[in-house]
From TrEMBL:
This is chorismate mutase. One of its GO terms (molecular function) is chorismate mutase activity. Residues 13-101 form the Chorismate mutase domain. Its EC number is 5.4.99.5. It comes from Acidisoma silvae. It comes from the Bacteria. The gene is pheA. The lineage of its organism: Bacteria, Pseudomonadati, Pseudomonadota, Alphaproteobacteria, Acetobacterales. GO terms for cellular component: cytoplasm. Pfam families: CM_2. One of its GO terms (biological process) is L-phenylalanine biosynthetic process.
Amino acid sequence: MSSFAEAAHDADIVPVDRLPALREQLDVLDDRILDLLAQRARIVEDVAAAKRGSGSIRPGREAAILRRLLAKHTGPLPRGAIIRIWREIFASSIAQQQSLQVAVCDPAMDGRFLAAAREHLGALTPMRVYRSPAQAIGEVADGRASVAILPMPGEGTGDGSVGPGWWPGLLQHNAKGRIHVVARLPFWSSRPEGAASVQALVISNTPADPSGEDMSLIALEVPAQVSLGSLSNAINAAGFKPLTMLVHRPAGVPAAFLLVEVDGFVTADDPRLGLIAGLQAPPMIVGAYAVAIAEEPSL
Ligand SMILES: O=C(O)C(=O)C[C@]1(C(=O)O)C=C[C@@H](O)C=C1
């Protein structure tokens, strides 16, 4: 903090008649911030052209930018403000590149998932709300939305319509290369009063991009009777570190489906995928997301 800013902390030693001059300083800084934002937006135009229409959203890159900024930040500006400001900057540079339409699954229709979506994707981004995950997934699969926000798979949502098993439906779309998990919310795990409180996944028609510190979701098909313990051993033996596992055993089908969260950013050519013993079908990468920034709520 500059000595001037330190002095400004103490109301007693900042004479009232300095107020106009201080506000003039803020005006000068606001002009500079505006110029810099305009300069940034011009570079975003070139970035969009360089990406050749491959979709505007890069959640991994956004996460890496936020981690870098928070790591170097000092001074009285609250860390949460850095997140808020840059989330809106990302939303505006995405809006520059495409007209983003977001499908939000808010199963209880109480606005909690909409709040999480707005926190991450921007206050002015067009969003439609759906009760069922299948509807929100369908919006992305059919091209009416580029992104959907879904409750965490396996988490009950209170109205009974979600259940543990919406993710197998996602796999059918994912198998055709159309839908990918690209982010997990909240990214800033500090939840000060007023912040959205739900956990959600972001899915997109553009594949996930690495942030440098990620987790991946892999879907596995195994014989129905296989125990979770032996599967966990097989995944470890292949060289993955499984963090969480969800199992889906559809009635009347001689197979169980697993959604496994593993450490790191896994790509389809990862040799470890071929080393997982006991599978009935090749493993499928469902997506990846940046590891959240964990901070105390007071920061
Ligand atoms: O790096 C990109 O691909 C961009 O489009 C730029 C940018 C940004 O504003 O920094 C915007 C949107 C992406 O989600 C990530 C980053």
